[in-house]
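Both lines are quoted verbatim for reference:

——
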Amino acid sequence: MKILSMHESERPREKAEKNGVTSLSNAELLAILLRTGEAGRNALDIANELMSSSGGSLTALRGLDMSKVKGVGRSKSLTILSAFELGRRLYREDVSSELHQVVRSPDDMYKIIDPILRFSTKEECWAYYFDPYGRLLKDKLMSTGSDMATIIDTKQIVLDAIMNSATAVILVHNHPHGSPLPSAADKQATSDLRKALKLVNINLNDHIIYSAGSYYSFSCEEVRNCLK
């Protein structure tokens, strides 16, 4: 059935215009992004298939190759992925208000990094620079890797710390598909960065490994579960 053949109250666009986009289901929102269907299936049918293929999870859907779903293709897949990325960037804008705040604990850092890394499907390495009072001066994405690894650029982190007159650094990277427990490589990179920073009288206050809902803190040497 074509969407135009559906009752007006069931059409995603008309429903959104009347009641607002918050009234729509995930499938209905996807149908608006898809815009058109294919022979025998409307956009809502395809959207429902997408949600079914991901077990009803938008996070899982983001990690699927949607372009292979019949009726989606590369162009519509990019449209959906772009919407996901806009949502992620909107979520991250809250972090700008965290600049200059005092970070007192790993839990404080978790609140800052959670909006950035929660929806990331690849490993990312971030450096956070602090003044002598523990206030956050700057955050910087240092590298983006695969779904299993990223690069920790010790030289660049030290240089940026000096350029920003930082007295302390907190390193953050994520394990998007696994445990936040550090690998041998993570431990070695932490040790190398700590030694390099110490040469210029800058402290490595912590290295936090993030995994959705939990994190590992090198300063505490433990995993903390932050799911509410």
